[in-house]
Write a structure and sequence with these properties.
This protein is α/β, with parallel strands linked by helices. The protein folds into 2 domains: 91 residues, Leucine Dehydrogenase, chain A, domain 1 (Rossmann fold); 131 residues, NAD(P)-binding Rossmann-like Domain (Rossmann fold, 3-Layer(aba) Sandwich), CATH 3.40.50.720. It has 9 helices and 11 strands. The chain has a 6-stranded parallel beta sheet. Strands 3-2-4 form a 3-stranded parallel beta sheet, sandwiched between helices. A two-stranded antiparallel ribbon has the order 9-10. It starts with a strand and ends with a helix. 42% of the residues are buried. It binds ligand LMY7XDAE.
Amino acid sequence: MTARVLDGKATAATIKAELAHRVSELAARGIIPGLGTVLVGDDPGSQKYVAGKHRDCEEVGIVSIREDLPGDASEEEILAAIRRLNDDDACTGYIVQLPLPRGVDTNAILEAVDPGKDADGLHPTNLGRLALRVNEPITSPLPCTPSAVLELLSRHGLDLNGKDVAVIGRGTTVGRSIGLLMTRRDINATVTLMHTGTVGMAEKVAAADVVVAAAGSPGLVQASWVKPGAIVLDVGVSRVVDSTGKGRIVGDVAPEVAEVASWLSPNPGGVGPMTRAMLLENVVTMAERTL
Ligand SMILES: Nc1nc2c(c(=O)[nH]1)N[C@@H](CN(C=O)c1ccc(C(=O)N[C@@H](CCC(=O)O)C(=O)O)cc1)CN2
């Protein structure tokens, strides 16, 4: 068996075309959505992701607002940037690019974001709504990578109802929040959330219908771990330098998994581009709610 490709790049392009149409309808009613970003420091990965987010904005007609701060910015300087975006009427929603430099209290920064402008769905109010509103529709923004995974699956006709899902990684942006999202009544999956303290990870993965690997550990998920026919989403990102000195991205899933899985998301080209598309989706939806 060779797995079919969960093509995030192509799916994100389709979503961006749909969003461009929604943005033009908003513009006809005098509303121009704006996305703000707060980037602290010069981490090459973060710089690339933020640049990509602003390129996407240009593509769909969303205004870009940037707050770029040096790596040694104080917490007070970061909070001042947050206050500027909270007060800026041109900014519909914004994100604080993570990770923040060591020593900065990430929770304190995320809590300062106006929950009504939280385009990442990572403010405690919005994560709290995701945790508490299990049976009712959610109108608050959802974290982008978890919703990217769900959207990528549903746009390939794949449903999680009754499925056993193994999630590897307990970070806030992916693992923790994907567990909350997938166990909602309207999704109805059963989730095993694994982490570095998990005993018997291979056996737990082998029992799963769907595997979401978000550990940031290159090639962690081996073909021998995966149930034949399972759906595998490779979310983890590691940057490695090969023997020629060239850098490249490596996911958490070993290439041989493609011989066992029924569907596999490539990395790059899978969940990453979808994460960016879902961020734009959050901003456009936030702007539409002002009508
Ligand atoms: N505030 C946030 N910070 C971070 C998040 C997040 O959702 N919110 N997630 C990740 C990084 N991330 C979004 O910010 C992100 C990661 C990857 C991609 C992407 O398009 N990747 C491409 C490859 C790009 C490359 O060549 O490096 C792909 O997978 O094809 C977009 C966004 C951590 N921080």
